[in-house]
Amino acid sequence: MKHVPNLLSLARLLMAPYLFLVLWRREYKLALVVIVVAGITDGLDGLFARRFGASSRLGAYLDPIADKVMLSGTFLTLALDGAVEKWLAVLVLGRDAGILLFAGAMFLFTKSVRKFPPSIWGKASTAAQILFVLALASHLAGFVGEPVVTMLKWLTVVLTAWSGLDYLRRAISRPDPK
Question: Which CATH number belongs to the domain containing residue 28 in this structure?
Fold first, then answer.
């Protein structure tokens, strides 16, 4: 039972290229199935890790990597296909790249190791991005109206920009640990 959460995260990571393919082929109903299965595995891996004390160091890295690969790749695929505006994908991917670059620079150029746990704004941003992708795929499959997609797009924009600024503020204002 202790390996189940990691196997679920790995399954989600392995599903990502298939999701990108079905999105690229504009098979939105199938993409919805993959997105829902990925969401279920994401929820279950956390549940199993907490409930059965099966959290691990590997899982602490694998779970967020699987999430970011799937979400970032989805935005990139949708932007390249023209289903979302390129600037939106740049905002989403740019925020994550900025966070990684800053963390990498801090690691390379200082002797301190800073941890930047997810903020409430980062979690809200990720939730909005997931809901937007789900609504967009549902819209493209013919299940959801455009006003829902538009509202979630702008919520995604606001929360992604705000969380990026919040991470930057936290990084700059946080003193180095001794």
Answer: 1.20.120.1760
